[in-house]
Each structure stands twice: as structure tokens, then as C-alpha cells.
Amino acid sequence: MPEDKLRLAIIGTGGIARRHITAIQDLFTRGLDDFVVTAACDVDEENLQRLAQQCEETLGRRPALYRDYQALLRDGVCDAVDLCLPHGLHHGVAVDCMDAGLHVLCEKPLGITIRACKVMAEKAAKTGLILSTAVPYRRLRGHRLARWVLNDAGLIGRPMSFFHAYTRPPRRLDPREPVPPALAWRQDRLMSGGGMVMDSGFHYCDGMRDLLGEVVQVSAEVREVISGEPLPLSQAREDTVFAILTFENGAVGAWQWSLSAPGAPLRQVVFYGTQGSLIDTTDSAFTVFHLFFSSGEVQLEDGSVRTWAELEGEYRRAIGEERWEFYYPRGLDDGFGFEIWEFVEAIQGRRQGVEVDGWEGTRSLAVCQAIYESALVGEPVRVADVLSGARRTYQAPIDAHWNL
Ligand SMILES: NC(=O)c1ccc[n+]([C@@H]2O[C@H](COP(=O)([O-])OP(=O)(O)OC[C@H]3O[C@@H](n4cnc5c(N)ncnc54)[C@H](O)[C@@H]3O)[C@@H](O)[C@H]2O)c1
Question: 21-24 — which CB contacts under 8 Å span 24+ positions?
């Protein structure tokens, strides 16, 4: 059937793909409906059928279903793809899609290693197609407001330091229960590339670059403590991280968290400037990964407090209605919806590219990889050396596995 709207296919129909369909439903309800979901692909029949059903019920259309993405490419059923696959598959599938002339929105982390990311970004540059890294959290109102407070509002002075810490007690899995598939590939470093440092941690590293600019150097320890043994990184399923990040603008701070800390829980996300502090007050287990998810406040040196609601009013006046509508079209405040809508708009030439393209996604992954490299070699690592490929001790076996 000929379509006059942009045709999008979803490849990988697991947990996050279902969240993307919910976001698309929200877009359609707002009249941001200049595209259709024409096809979906997965090797897992149950996930595929579940997503097809969701599309039928919420988007009013059942997509064509594929078990093999090459068949989907051959059939020419779409103009763009939304890749929601395990990390090790991102680069290979993305490159095949771009070779077939399709624009690509790829779930984070862009690629499994820096080499994988570069292959993708270079292919996008060569073909002129849009490659977007799907990162929802830096698009949220709270995050954009925090960025304005730190960089433009002049409220807390010059950002100098930050203290980000989170702990929770361990969640012990029942060894008699089978490991769920979405966890199984995450526990395999050759398929995931790593644990929380580059899974939810990708959001943190990307968000911190958005808030404070480029990271110059990283010094880190990455541990598994749940076993009670001090395992080396090569054998560990990381559950505890201490990372000191030094930024180009001179700011320095610590990102420390443990998902295996029995007893007292801890949650603190504070930035200090020369005249005051910016505090993330979101009450969420993910606060140390998804910064300023919903709320925050500013505390000044004289003890006065500026509430989030007050600040948001000032921010909106400062950026103006046109910019506000650009960030939150028709009241949209869902990062997943924004990343998909921005992708559609960029393909149709209504936006100048995307905020987090292939190179930007590569730079964010370089911060995650610098944490691993530093923890493995036991010394500070410069992010530029990770980006250039001069430092890749941690990534080398993963690159070798994928012939990168
Ligand atoms: N933005 C976020 O907040 C967020 C949250 C969760 C996951 N993610 C990202 O989304 C991606 C997918 O994660 P998930 O949690 O949905 O995993 P998942 O395991 O739930 O889903 C992955 C799907 O890919 C399918 N698949 C595997 N190999 C395939 C192949 N060759 N062809 C087609 N399908 C194949 C699996 O069968 C599965 O259905 C990852 O990159 C992850 O980091 C992002």
C-alpha cells in the first residue's frame, strides 16, 4: 500500500520497544503523526506478537512482521528504522540498514565499543542518512532546566564540583529461576559491552556532558561486591562504582553508586558553584543515572532557596515561546516521544539534524569506556585517548569478538 507518511520499522521488540510504542501513541494523540509504524522484526516470536498486538490496539494498525531483518530490508517496507536491540547487534544492523538507504534511530549506547560507534557514525556521514542516538533523559524539562541553571542563569556562579552518590541493598536472584532473556544478554560482556556503567550509566555520562561540557579525565574503580569476593573487573558483574570525572571547564566531582549495599540507603545528587548549589530532589532509584528526572532546587550561599516551579517560569521566559515549543512540541514532555519525533522531523527536513547524532553518541560512550579503562589499568585515563583508540585495553576483546 503506498504511504504518504514516513514509514518506520521497529527492529527488536522487547522491553524498550514497547515503551517506544507507548511514546508513539502519545505523539499521535497530540497530532504529531506524520509517520506510521509499518513493520516490526524480532527473532523472538512472543515479543514480536506482543508488540504487534500493542500497535494494533494503540496505533490502530498491525505492522508487517519479520523474523529476519534482512528480509525486512529486502521488502522495502520502511524509510527509517528504530533499533531496539542488544548492544552487540547495534553496529552490524545499523550499517546494513544505512546500506539499504534507511535512516536509523538507535537505542543507547550507540555501539558496543568506540570502534563500533565509529563504524556507524562514518557510515551515516558517507550516506548522508540521519543516525540518531536514542537518549530520552537529557531532553526532559527537568534536565534542560538544570542545564540552564548551571550554564546560563548565573544563579549559583561557576560550577566547580559535584557529589553524586546512590546506594541500595542488593536484590538477590533465586538461582533456581531461569535468567530472563533481557538480563541474560546484559550479563554477557561480549553482547552487552559492560554493565550499568554503559547501560543506565550511558544516560548519566551523556547527561553530564550536556550539563557541564566535555570530560577530560577519569579515574575509577569498578567492583562486584555482592559475591563478597574482590573480583577483578574482567570477572565482575559490576555492582559498585567510584568514578572521579574532571571536566574541561575545570569542574570536578564523583559519581559513586552501589546496587549491593546492604542496610542504609543513600541518595545525593548535588552540584556546587561558586555561589550556591543545585540539588536534584527527584525521589527515584534512578536519580544517580537519570539526572533531574522531575524536580530540583537551588540553595544559595545566604541560605535562600529557589524552587523548581519558580525557576521553570524564569527559564521559560528566558528561552522564549518559540524555543519552548521546539523542545516541548504541543506540550510533549516525554523524552522517548521527543527522540522519536525529532528523528522524524530531521528526516523530513523540518529540523536541522538531531541533538545526539552518531558522533555525539560516540563521545558519550567514550566517558563510560574511560571508566572501564581506568578501573582495568588502575590509573587515570584521558577521554581523548579513549576516543582516538589509543586506550582500548578493556574494549579489545569485545572488538575482536565482533571483528572490529
Ligand atoms: N532509554 C532507556 O531508558 C532504555 C531502557 C532499556 C533499554 N534500553 C536499550 O534498548 C535496547 C534493548 O534493550 P531491551 O531492554 O529492550 O532488551 P530486550 O532484551 O527486552 O529486547 C531486545 C529484543 O531484541 C531481540 N533480538 C535479539 N536479536 C535479534 C535479531 N538478530 N534480530 C531481531 N531481534 C533480535 C530480542 O529477541 C528481544 O526481543 C538496548 O540498547 C538497551 O540499552 C534503553
Answer: 21/51, 21/54, 21/55, 21/58, 21/59, 22/58, 22/336, 23/334, 23/336, 23/337, 23/340, 24/59, 24/337, 24/340
